[in-house]
Amino acid sequence: MTVPQTMRAVVLTGHGGLDKLEYHEDWPTPTPAAGEVLVQVGACGLNNTDINTRTAWYSKTVTEGINAGGKAGFAAAEAGTGSWGSSSIQFPRIQGADVAGRIAAVGSGVDDGRIGDRVLLDPWLLATGDYLDPSRSMYFGSECDGGYAEYTCIRSENAVCIETPLSDAELATYPCACTTAENLVARSGLRPGETVVIAGASGGVGSAAIQLCRLRGARVIAIAAAAKQSLLTELGAHQVIDRDSDDLEQAIVAAAGGKVDVALDVVGGGMFMPLINALRQGGRYSSSGAIAGPLVEFDLRQLVYKDLQLTGATIVPPGTMRRLVRLIEQGLLKPLLAQTFPLHELGKAQEMFMQKQHVGNIVVET
What we know:
Layout: E1 6-12, E2 21-28, E3 36-45, H1 48-55, E4 98-106, E5 118-121, E6 124-125, E7 138-139, E8 151-155, E9 159-161, H2 168-171, H3 175-188, E10 195-199, H4 204-215, E11 219-224, H5 229-235, E12 239-242, H6 248-256, E13 260-265, H7 272-277, E14 279-287, H8 300-305, E15 309-312, H9 320-329, E16 337-342, H10 346-355, E17 361-365
Parallel strand pairs: 10-11, 10-13, 11-12, 13-14, 14-15, 16-17
Antiparallel strand pairs: 1-2, 3-4, 3-8, 3-17, 4-5, 5-9, 6-7
């Protein structure tokens, strides 16, 4: 396979608005280092991390939801703490964590027989030993260049072989959404027969969580816009609650026929307390995001006197992506592709992504 010296890529030049995304047709093609592979990108999916990193939303000075400054950036953002691990990002940076493609070349120490393999990339570049150490665990497209380009490099072990009739665009809906959702569900300790409520159920993580909860034998209540009810029911939700319900807590309890065992949340903001209030004694809450806002009011009596368990879910345990690939190959996890865009229209794709009117994932194709 012939690899060109230059490639098309969208490059992030700094923290801020959509104007910080620059399209190039002559960006240097990376060369795989020892232990790495060069992947020819077929498609790369969008996720909230893209917006969070571009705008430096992760910095503690930002208190709004991610979409509030998604187009123009956040004036309050601090570049020095602009990454998910509260560190700085080095620019220019090629973002994009959700890559499907084929191995085009290999670095030293990697079997040449891998060239041509169809792969799905695991975006978590975990440290050996304590994988939960954020100073040594990197995220693809954040601490290193990612997939909004024709070619990208990654550790060989993070390029997971996959055999499936699904298209690259369909495959690119999985990596970030499914690994995040699996970690979110696992951290809650969800058990067969339990009832789980999922906030933000129509997004990439939420729609993946519906499927993963069903595979665990749980009863699923999804919270989303009323217009998305039929799609989420088809995906496996037992019931769908309108996110604009006047009394969301009571709507959850009514749908469940009582208090729920588990709440999964990527929304935060005003969604937080209704979820907490709807939990049973000894219930569990797990969060992997706060797209509606990171600051919430919290009645500690709910935590203390209901014996609740609250967990965060960010760094994904090793081996998670490989297990999910096996589920994809067996047809047990369905792709939910909302729309595709060409690479040079990444800015337009992000605008649509931030509107949150879609179900599933938005993908750019190279």
